[in-house]
Amino acid sequence: MKRVAVLILILPFLLLSFPATGADRLSGVASVIDGDTIEIHKRRIRLFGIDAPESAQTCTRDGSPYRCGQQAAAALAGKVGRRVVTCVKRDTDRYARVVATCAEGGVDLSQWMVAQGQAVAYRKYSQAYVADEEKAKAGRLGIWSGKFQDPAEFRANGRSRSSGRKTPSFSRRFTRYLAPYFGGAREGRRCLRPDDLDRAGRRCGKRSSASRPDRN
After folding, report:
1. Model pLDDT for residues 74-114, shown as the tens digit of each residue
2. Are residues 176 and 144 in the same domain?
3. Furthest-apart CA pair in the chain: how many Å?
4. What Å distances lie between residue 65 and 16, 74, 139, 159, 204, CA to CA?
5. Cβ–Cβ < 8 Å for 204, 195
6. CA 6 to chain CA mean position, Å
7. Residue 54: active-site member
8. Residue range of the domain that includes 199
9. For 149-192, what is each residue's pLDDT tens digit?
């Protein structure tokens, strides 16, 4: 019974000491998608614990804009080259990408990117690379040599504009919804007179029926 009890106690530690299973480990020549995303064997992998500028993102250095997103991707591509990268899965993100710690030649790529100033520590998910970020910031490396918008904020702003439609001003929305209740609006949709408002709250003007040349 004592041997069984001892085995039960040490079993969790033995399991933790085993290497990651094949399902959790992926190795191969990597293609760089952007500064924090690679692809191995057609599987997208998000580097754990960091956030790099987006591909379309620009930053400022010495008063001039430059494509920091493309620069970050180029730095990562230069680091991995055509050499084998090994990744150990940590999680899966909402885009179904594997989130993993990846290394090339024993070098943690996430740590390397942050240390080079090509990415920031993604504090929302990990504190692992905060010290590396502080050193890069102190040395004014990469994006820290100028001004930049946090990549997460850049993405959030991009999503708010992705529909391509402008948000109507308060006055426009007020006019649109209350137009039917005012005499000059005439249901807020029909252009009978120049002073009427259409469905969008715009003044009809020459588009009104009264302004048509064939009107008697």
Report:
1. 999 999 999 999 999 999 988 888 999 999 999 999 999 99
2. no
3. 107
4. 47, 17, 20, 22, 43
5. yes
6. 48
7. yes
8. 170-211
9. 999 999 998 865 544 444 444 444 444 444 444 444 444 445 66
99 shares its domain with 134? yes
- Among the listed residues 44, 67, 90, 97, the single catalytic one is 97
Whether residues 177 and 101 fall in one domain: no
Q: Are 30 and 41 in contact (CB under 8 A)?
A: no
Task: Record the pTM.
Answer: 0.65
Q: Could you tell me if 42 and 124 lie in one domain?
A: yes
Q: Which residue has the higher pLDDT, 29 or 182?
A: 29
Catalytic, out of 54, 133, 176, 186: 54
The answer to whether residue 94 is domain-embedded is: yes
203, two tokens: 């003044």
Question: Would you call 199 a catalytic residue per the annotation?
Answer: no
Cα Rg, the chain, nearest whole Å: 28
The residues, ordered by sequence, that sit 6+ positions from 174 with a Cβ below 8 Å of its Cβ are none
Asked, for residue 131, whether it belongs to a domain, the answer is: yes
Residue 200 C-beta-side C-alpha neighbours within 13 Å: 6
